[in-house]
Amino acid sequence: MSTPTYEDVQNAIQQWIVEATSITADRVRWSDQGGTQPTSAGGAWISLSIMAEGVQGKPWADIEDGAVAGTVQHVARSQNAGTLSIEVYNAASRGNGSALAILRKLKPSLWLPAVSEILDGVVGMGAFADARNIPGLVNATYFEPRGIMSCRFFTATELRSTASGAATTSHIEHVEIAGETE
Questions:
Q1: CB 3.0-4.6 Å disulfide test: which of 20, 54, 109, 159 passes with 76?
Q2: 132: part of which helix (H) or strand (E)?
Q3: pLDDT value at position 159?
Q4: What is the pLDDT of residue 129?
Q5: Contacts of 99 (CB under 8 A, 6+ apart)
Q6: What are the φ/ψ torsions at residue 111 (nearest 5 degrees)?
Q7: How many Cβ atoms from other residues are within 10 Å of residue 113's Cβ?
Q8: Can you tell me the distance from the alpha carbon of 92 to that of 99, in angstroms, rounded to the nearest whole number?
Q9: What gap in Å lies between CA 149 and CA 47, rounded to an integer?
Q10: Is the per-residue pLDDT at 165 higher than 50?
Q11: Does the pLDDT of residue 61 top 90, yes or no?
């Protein structure tokens, strides 16, 4: 089993947002990906950012048989949780194209088969904060309807290393108890 990479997680989140909102992939961007922001002429666009992420609980390790005889795999695993910020810009001021209407599609979309296929085995989405309307002025002349929402997400990390020789016997292989026990 291989653990999804950080890039896999980001790609799955971006694809989920595209699927749920019907906003094209070129208008759903990571805030730190660089380049110019989408033009206002194209309608609403979304900025994604991972605000925080950390290991939840205590990581653990396992030892598994290696692919080659005489070797073992040392496997360190952890469960991680993070906070995703989803910001909608240049939305309609009212109706189905408003920032809040776009954001409210995200949570129920998790039950759609197409979204499940995108996220399964890569990232799990958790608690959603209320979507907030945050109108802004652009150049003090243009009102731009905006919205923001955050949600928790969950991932797994798995690191592997192969050992051979003395390192393969660092765990107890056999225990025998002699004598009587009470």
A1: 159
A2: strand 132-133
A3: 83
A4: 93
A5: 44, 88, 89, 91, 131, 133, 145, 146, 147
A6: -95, 0
A7: 7
A8: 7
A9: 11
A10: yes
A11: no
- Categorise residue 7: left if φ over 0, alpha if ψ from -120 to 50, beta otherwise: alpha
Distance spanning both ends of the chain, measured CA to CA: 44
In this structure, which amino acid lies at residue 6? Y
Which residues are CB-neighbours of 14 under 8 A, at least 6 positions away? 25, 28, 30, 48
Phi, psi of 117 (to 5 degrees): -65, -35
pTM of the predicted model, to two decimals? 0.78
From the CB of residue 148, how many other CB atoms can be counted at a distance below 10 Å? 17
Q: How far apart (Å, rounded) are the C-alpha atoms in residues 54 and 78?
A: 10
Strands 28-30 and 45-65 turn out to be parallel
CA dist list (Å): 147 to 3, 75, 89, 120, 131: 33, 42, 7, 27, 7
What's the rounded Cα separation, in Å, for the pair 167 and 170? 6
Q: How many residues does the chain have?
A: 182
Distance CA 86, CA 104 (A): 11
Residue whose token pair is 């776009």: 102
Specify the amino acid at residue 100: L
CA distance 28 to 26: 6
